[in-house]
Amino acid sequence: MGQVQASIWSASYARIDSDADQFYDSASVTFDPDLPTGVSGTVTASARLYTSGGTLVETKTQNYSLSGAAATSYTLSFSPVTTATNYYIWLGVYYSSTTVADDTWTSVNFALAALSVQASIYSATYTQIDSNSDGYYDSASVTFDPDLPAGDSGTVSVVAELHSVSLGLVESITQNYNLIGSTAQSFTIGFSPVTELDNYYIWLGVYYSSTTVADDSWTSVQFGLAPLLTTASIYSATYSAFDSDSDTYDDTATVTFDPDLFPGIEDNVTIIAKLIDSGSTIVETINQAYYIYGDGVDSFTLTFTTVDIADYYRVVLEIYYSDIAVPDDTWTSAMFWLEPLSITYLPYIFNASYVTQDTSDGDTNHDIVRVTVDPDVDEYNNYSITLVFYLFTSSNNAVDTYSMDVTIYGTDVDSFSHQFSVSTNGQYYVAVELYYSDLAVPDDSWSSETFYLYAPGNNPPPSSNNPPSSSSTPSNDSSDDTDGGNNPASDLPVSNIWMLISYFGIIAVIVRKRETKSN
């Protein structure tokens, strides 16, 4: 005798509009399950709701006591869906097996819409407020009546936002309210006084069925608000750095600004302008009073005296009106570079030398070169400079480079070094460039004569082509020399000089006459 099986005599599906919003948002399946004639028992029915793409959304399972093929009718209903798309229902009945349905049925595809029980804004109005009775609206409020669908009750969240047309969102306030259907109710949300004279608008959103997207929203027209009349402001400001003595270096700074009070107000304000160096030290302070007319267009300029130390600087403006201890408004410029008035001192390479050496591989062949440089400046001040070391082949190909930022003081004895190593036998030379006032063109440079270096562990060429190890200490005299002196133009063959000019973009090499420095 075979297994006794249940069957589905008939089945149909229905779409349901659970919230009476004229959109079907859930579904049910009605069916008549049977057992064979003369057989009684308990049958399990499983109804599953799938998206048309086959994704399981919900399963409903129920047990039924059946007697043969008697006519019966049962219904399984699904919850409202959260996504508007096409769906289908699968139905299975189980009697002789708990894993494989004895009989199944599948509906056609049908469309459902997401449940749309939503809150709404029945009405809303905004009000401008003069909170300090000075004749100017400085804040605003919004009054509104939120609703739920008739017969529904629950808690809604209302978000009120005040937006500045120029600056964007200024303030956001969230409040929760318990509502009963569409009962008339009135709530008010007020904003803080604004700090900028501008046009504003209010956005209102009500949330019930969603916490991310407002069920309904409302936006006011634009309206003007002015700050409380207790502060002045800096409407605009610009700075400039210029060369007052035509020595090609900016040594002086100015700041031009337009201070404002509010429309209809005329009074004195105090401007304090500060010149501040890179270490946040106030170098100069200017205190100046101005009589201004409301928010009219004004233009005032303050000039700082020339600086004593080359450095990065910034300008800070403070405006005082209602409080002499705390500025009503401030403005800060970007950083800019200033040099002392009539620069006559630029750092230079006082002395440079190189020495070739053999590493610890003990093959007696020199495979490294160490370059040492002593930079100076004929002024007893700290100068931050950049030294760039180069290693070239004799055919003027750059092999390696190294950059070093250092600080020097006057003509003190300094010693800054860098070591290059090679992996290929050949003839090389080294060069050093000093940068101070311009990071594109070196302020001074030096280069050596050529010398031989050998890769570690390599045998040298025949002795006729293997000159002894070389070292060079340049002369301090800027006249022509060939021993690594202070005049880059005389240290290399003509072809090498033109290579350097082409490679680094050096238009001219500074040649100075200096006296020998005692150590």
Describe this structure in words.
With 519 residues, the protein is an all-beta fold. It contains 1 helix and 33 strands. The longest helix has 11 residues, at 494-504. The termini are far apart. Residues 462-519 have low confidence and may be disordered.
How are the SSEs placed, and which strands pair?
Layout: E1 7-16, E2 26-34, E3 40-51, E4 56-67, E5 74-77, E6 85-94, E7 103-106, E8 110-112, E9 120-129, E10 139-147, E11 153-164, E12 168-180, E13 187-190, E14 198-207, E15 216-219, E16 223-225, E17 233-242, E18 252-260, E19 266-277, E20 282-293, E21 300-303, E22 311-320, E23 329-332, E24 336-338, E25 348-357, E26 368-376, E27 382-393, E28 398-409, E29 416-421, E30 426-435, E31 444-447, E32 451-453, E33 471-472, H1 494-504
Antiparallel strand pairs: 1-2, 2-5, 3-4, 3-6, 6-7, 6-8, 9-10, 10-13, 11-12, 11-14, 14-15, 14-16, 17-18, 18-21, 19-20, 19-22, 22-23, 22-24, 25-26, 25-33, 26-29, 27-28, 27-30, 30-31, 30-32
Query: In whole angstroms, how far apart are the ends?
Result: 118 Å
Pick out the low-confidence regions: 462-519
Q: Quickly count the helices.
A: 1
Mean pLDDT equals: 84
Strand percent estimate: over 45%
Helix-strand makeup class: mainly beta
The helix content is under 10%
Oligomer state equals: single chain
Largest sheet: 5 strands, antiparallel
Gross morphology is: flat
The radius of gyration computed from the alpha-carbon positions, rounded to a whole number of angstroms, is: 43 Å
> Got a strand count?
33
